[in-house]
Amino acid sequence: MSTKEKSLNFIEQIIEEDLKNGLSQDKLRFRFPPEPNGYLHIGHASSICLNFGLGLDYQAPVNLRFDDTNPAKEEQEYVDAIKKDVQWLGYEWAEECYASDYFQQLYDWTIELIKKGKAYVDSQSSEEMAKQKGTPTQPGVDSPYRNRSVEENLDLFERMKNGEFEEGTHILRAKIDMTSTNMLMRDPIMYRILHKHHHRTGDKWCIYPMYDWAHGESDYMEQISHSFCTLEFLPHRELYDWFLDQIIDTTLVRPKQREFARRNLSHTVVSKRKLLQLVQEGHVNGWDDPRMSTISGMRRRGYTPVAIRNFADTIGIAKRDNLIDVSLLEFCVREDLNKTTSRVMAVLDPVKLVITNYPEGKEEWLEAENNPEEEVMTYRKVPFSKELYIEREDFLEEANSKFFRLTLGKEVRLKNAYIIKGESVVKDADGNITEIHATYDEDSRSGSGTEASQRKVKGTIHWVSIPHAIAAEVRIYDRLFSHENPDGNKDINFKEFLNPNSLEIITGYVEPSLKSAVDGDRFQFQRLGYFCVDRDTTAEKLVFNKTVGLRDTWAKLENKE
Q: Are 10 and 319 in contact (CB under 8 A)?
């Protein structure tokens, strides 16, 4: 890293400084430590990219460690989802670890702390504890159980482990300083009683370590050199170090906790608790709903790993919390999909176009390029016939000179096909246009080399041949929240800002080349946006999710407001 010509972020500067001060490069080891109590979201993606990116830059191992210390909220489903997300983003972990791997060692160390008079069993209620803990400006007072004998603490702690007590009757606390200005140092809880089945250890344990006790010690056992956390853990650093001081072997690497700012995303929430609420209350259709800020939701919507990694790299690492506009993420998605997706034709708001002078029963298979961004151009065949679907908005019966699509008396090119001229319309009893009649110039076929084919017209529109069209369910997604920062006002419930129009389901028509498309395939529907095949697709029914438009329409709307 130090030989690279690049500016370093403050995290990289910390590592470089440690290397200069004698830390051997082969001692570098990082970790990503999710709690398996929900699906990962875009905020976790930044942390994944940070830690695994450092691993790649420094050729250092990165562990995936599950902080599974609360069986009341954790499930194997979440473990499996997290592993899938990390792999999908393109990263491989060195070791798959669990805090539960260390339960026995943590317990053994705790016994030693009790014997040294540095931990005790407290039998107060949670309300009593809260009162005696004080406030940020007022010191706490000692628990009446703080000076229990070592023998009594050992006996009670053993019985807690053996399941003799109900939840909430006892806890184990570290004996530090009830007058500390850092309230986390005022005899923090190390263990609580939980009679819950653990997804890995079963019913072996009735006591479970708190995050602050398990976190640093897990880092130490794995010999993690740098433990990077989000900014809310800054006050925890003092406690992280105090716990390490109690058990450290100076011949081993001492982990260092450092903090970076959380990156919040506009028009959504990045709290697992709130995302779970949206799922449980039915505001969305599961954790992988394409409107969600979860990695699985973005994957289902059609976002790419490259786009998310580029987004994480673009926003970088900062020391202050920040609200990132979702349009930046959408830009990264659009930029990647532009390079990688085939262009196809689909009509989402169809109106029938009849080419009156095209021979009845005739069909042609015309050549269409797949992606102009490809180094070596590839092509496919699309069918053309007398009756087509075009987008309703691509026709105006009467139009001014700035309208370059189809209108009566003017010419427009059908993409990859012919130049046509609007002639007349058919309307229903309510005056709605049901058919557009046009004539075509049979010498004007694209790519034919004729003089007529090279004639310039101002507009080009897309189309789908009606006899060959495949009906598809198309899910049009909008921002999940109408407010850019739904979580920003603590006096207003974030759900007040849910966008009632965040999902519209329509029937569209696509060209027949898409008949074989499968879950996860991505396409650019020409002139409409990028779309992805949804997992609900079957052999009988195609389902597409709109990933992102061709341009940022929200920016225009917000500028008008």
A: yes
